[in-house]
Amino acid sequence: MDRILNALAEAMIPPGGAFDPGGADIGLPARVKEIARRLGYPSWPLGVFLRLFDWFPLLFGFRFRRFSRLDPDSRRTFLACLEGSRGMVGTGVFLALKALVMPLFYSDPEVGRRIGYSAAGGELPAALGGGEP
């Protein structure tokens, strides 16, 4: 599960983009497990979903490799294909994965600091209307 989550996070939020760190640099697998533990959810349903997703490139005829074994460019291309898919399955899977990765990435304290949120949280940067009136 960790390998798949890291590959997914790196493909959705590549390192060296608008700001560092990239998606794989925040310890996403550990964050997912911690949140599941706090909420009292078993981790096996997510593990099953991610393992099924790992085989999607092969099942959809994209490449003869699992997602976690694709090179980074092929991963991003595959996710773009899912996002632009006209089928409900491809689009639904992409949205579920995005809903998993993005909130965890942007709630990371280091990421928040780099985009201008205070360490205390809850305050908007001045450019977005936060700070002193």
Textual characterization of the structure:
With 133 residues, this protein is mainly alpha-helical. The protein has one domain (2-115). It is 56% helix and 0% strand. The protein has 7 helices and no strands. It has helices spanning 2-12, 28-39, 44-54, 56-59, 72-83, 88-106, 109-114. The longest helix is centred in the C-terminal third of the chain and has 19 residues, at 88-106. The chain is globular, with a radius of gyration of 16 Å. The model has no long low-confidence stretch (mean pLDDT 83).
Task: Give the topology.
Blueprint: H1 2-12, H2 28-39, H3 44-54, H4 56-59, H5 72-83, H6 88-106, H7 109-114
Number of domains: 1
Shape: globular
Q: Low-confidence stretches at least 5 residues in length (pLDDT < 50)?
A: none
Strand proportion, as a percent range, falls in under 5%
Overall strand count? 0
Number of helices: 7
Radius of gyration: 16 Å
Given the helix and strand composition, which structural class is it? Answer: mainly alpha
What's the mean pLDDT score? 83
Distance between the first and last residues' Cα: 46 Å
Which H/E pattern describes the elements?
HHHHHHH
Considering DSSP H and I runs of 4 or more, what fraction of the residues is helical? 55-70%
> Which sheet architecture does the biggest sheet show?
none
